[in-house]
Automatic annotation (TrEMBL):
Residues where glycerol binds: R81, E82, Y133, D242, Q243
Lineage of producing organism: Bacteria, Pseudomonadati, Pseudomonadota, Alphaproteobacteria, Rhodobacterales
Role according to the record: Key enzyme in the regulation of glycerol uptake and metabolism. Catalyzes the phosphorylation of glycerol to yield sn-glycerol 3-phosphate.
SUPFAM superfamilies per the UniProt record, alphabetical: Actin-like ATPase domain (SSF53067)
Protein's organism: Tritonibacter litoralis
Name of the protein described by the UniProt record: Glycerol kinase
Enzyme Commission code: 2.7.1.30
Top-level taxon: Bacteria
Biological process per Gene Ontology, one example term: glycerol-3-phosphate metabolic process
């Protein structure tokens, strides 16, 4: 039996999963690492922690699976996107902490860019909104604030990468400086139509282009891991940003196919085929995957708080001990109360993109308690998803979830939340048997590239349903509930 090792380097933890040739997960290892919050709105990771947790979980999972490294034929890397690392080319030492996608330190600079009228240029070239979320202003910040950094970058001494690129550099012992098109598409430096770094944008930010990685297909040759790491040199042959990898793991290959991943936040991707659709509703245009030099595009909606609202019930309000307790509470909630929770803890993402507003609760009565709040928390995730799907529908001119919404991520385990989601979007919601779709997607890329796994059509047939949630709510109730949500959002934005 041959195996593929998938590294899923996420925002709060790193997972390594070994898949066999039949794409069955054999063993998993997970490691949480430290989050750094040096100032309000700043979020950093120590790049050495990202590397140590990646190498460590890989070694642990190989040991746990009891497989001979000779039989591990390929490595796939999927990663938190946008997070920015700059390191010294000769020593591999980062010159600053990784600035994480959630970090808002460049908000004022982004505002200046918007006021200076650059938004359309960025939208045309990169498909993105001007927002601190993406890598380019984080990279500029490092070049502006670390002593001598820009000069050193000009002399070719420093390299930039998203997390995939940094891990490839470390795994290959500094031999390969590369990324894939899905990660490049999140930097706000990459022209997603022309398929190359934008010299116009690099000039605007004074970013020396020598420090940018080579951009490859998502299934490609990214070099081999150092022999001393895992017992032999293993080819790295699949790379994709985590949300794109999840869309692959969900086999969303056809235009119109749609997935939503419910982890800490929620990211919905709609495959739009070989056409980059420019959103009129503040969604992002991105690359879903790139194979054989051909990009497949997607519309993406990002919600910052999904499962995190359940964490707030647990750690903030302390009305639950376990995420799964939300379901029995929601079932007991008083149906006559209409409590609406807008979880804008860090502002609102798509389609509102308001970083300043904060969360709110409407409709409380003397009898409102944990049951109603738990219900409102789960409901808020469905309402936000409907916001995204309505925006997608308007962008593509036909119902976005015309077939089915495929869901994954930790929160998709909640039957109550998934049923309510189907009710509110008025369409079927399919949950697959394998919820680790992110690792699965990149394992498939890596395995396919080395010829050990099936091509696209065969892989798509392996997707297996765990449960389908069909809409049951009557239309009047649905529209009344959704209208109440829209009013609550309006009030939240106005507050
Ligand atoms: N049964 C459940 N009901 C509701 N939320 C859940 C349930 N199980 C997990 N979650 C939520 O899912 C999230 C974890 O999902 P995961 O995919 O591991 O996230 P991430 O990769 O972002 O860390 C947590 O925020 C948790 O609150
Ligand atoms: O690491 P996750 O799962 O929280 O995903 C983060 C996204 O890639 C950010 O764009």
């Amino acid at each position: 039996m041959k195996y593929v090792l998938a590294i899923d380097q996420g925002t709060t933890s790193t997972r390594a999963i070994i898949f066999d040739e039949a794409l069955k997960p054999v063993a998993t290892s997970q490691d949480e690492f430290k989050q750094h919050f040096p100032q309000s709105g700043w979020v950093e990771h120590d790049p050495d922690d990202l590397w140590a947790s990646s190498a460590g979980t890989c070694r642990a999972v190989i040991e746990r699976a009891g497989v001979d490294p000779q039989n591990i034929i390929s490595i796939g890397i999927t990663n938190q996107r946008e997070t920015t690392v700059v390191w010294d080319k000769s020593t591999g030492q980062p010159i600053y902490n990784a600035i994480v996608w959630q970090d808002r330190r460049t908000a004022n600079y982004c505002e200046e860019l918007r006021k200076a009228g650059h938004s359309d240029m960025f939208a045309d070239r990169t498909g993105l909104l001007v927002d601190p979320y993406f890598s380019s202003t984080k990279l500029k910040w490092i070049l502006d604030h670390v002593d001598g950094a820009r000069e050193r970058a000009r002399r070719g001494e420093l390299l930039f990468g998203t997390v995939d690129t940094f891990l490839i550099w470390k795994l290959t012992g500094g031999k390969v400086h590369a990324t894939d098109a899905t990660n490049a598409a999140r930097t706000m430096l990459y022209d997603i139509r022309k398929g190359r770094w934008s010299s116009t944008i690099c000039a605007l930010f004074d970013i020396p282009m020598e420090m940018l990685p080579e951009v490859k297909d998502s299934a490609a040759d990214f070099g081999v891991s150092r022999a001393d790491l895992f017992g032999r040199e293993i080819p790295i042959s699949g790379v994709a940003g985590d949300q794109q990898a999840a869309a692959l793991g969900q086999a969303c290959f056809e235009p119109g196919m749609l997935k939503a991943t419910y982890g800490t936040g929620c990211f919905a991707l709609l495959n739009t085929g070989d056409t980059p659709v420019q959103s009129k509703n503040r969604l992002l245009t991105t690359i879903a995957y790139q194979l054989d030099g051909k990009p497949t595009y997607a519309l993406e909606g990002s919600i910052f708080i999904a499962g995190a609202v359940v964490q707030w019930l647990r750690d903030g309000l302390r009305i639950i001990h376990e995420a799964s307790e939300t379901q029995p509470l929601a079932e007991k909630a008083d149906p006559m109360q209409n409590v609406v929770l807008v979880p804008a803890f860090t502002g609102l993402g798509a389609p509102y993109w308001n970083p300043e507003c904060r969360g709110s609760v409407f409709g409380l009565t003397r009898n409102s308690g944990p049951n109603e709040l738990a219900k409102a928390a789960l409901e808020s995730v469905a309402y936000q998803t409907r916001d995204l799907l309505d925006a997608m529908t308007s962008d593509i001119g036909s119902k976005a979830d015309k077939s089915v919404l495929r869901v994954d991520g930790g929160m998709s385990a909640s039957n109550w939340a998934m049923q309510f989601l189907a009710d509110i979007i008025d369409g079927p919601v399919d949950r697959p048997q394998i919820l680790e779709t992110t690792a699965l997607g990149v394992a498939w890329l890596a395995g396919m590239q080395v010829g050990a796994m099936p091509e696209r059509e065969e892989f798509a047939k392996l997707w297996a349903l765990d449960r389908e949630f069909a809409p049951q709510m009557n239309p009047q109730t649905r529209e009344a509930k959704y209208a109440a949500w829209k009013r609550a959002v309006e009030c939240t934005l106005a507050f």
